[in-house]
Amino acid sequence: MQIITLGNELLRQRAEKIDKIDDEITNAAKQMLEIIKLEKGVGIAGPQIGLMKRIFVTHTEGDEERIFINPSILETSQETVKFEEGCLSVPGFYADVVRSESVKIQAWNEKGKPFTLEANGLLARVIQHEYDHLEGILFLDRISELKRKRLIEKYEKALLKGEKNSK
Fold first, then answer.
1. Which of 19, 71, 97, 117 has its Cα between 20 and 30 A from that of 129?
2. Which listed residue (61, 130, 135, 156) is catalytic?
3. Over the stretch 12-33, which tens digit does the pLDDT of each residue have?
4. Are 49 and 2 in contact (CB under 8 A)?
């Protein structure tokens, strides 16, 4: 599995519902968890690896690994927090993004069991970020047009130079 990066049209497409949680899906989830360990990330969604299915995984510091299949965000708090975000699909680039402080989400785990989770802080942010990927939305879409344009220009220049980690 390879991480798809900015410029690939798959990142702008809405992921499809998973009809059956089978070995293919559970194996993909395990591989996704391995990717975030290797890349020192906190989450990754199916579209980021070319799997156009509604699945994402998270693993934030102090929290267990989590698999979200066919997730639905039920509630978000009115309280918001600005925090610097990055993305494995836009490697080495970061921007302050405003998101809800807490979130309530319903999904299925890799065993096909439904669960509801209320999260706040970093986990809530990661859930919202990864859920956005399922909708074809990148964190860059959540910043001002001017900042987005500048960041994309820097990203494209870095690609031309063959650099991976630029700010």
1. 19
2. 130
3. 999 999 999 999 999 999 999 9
4. yes
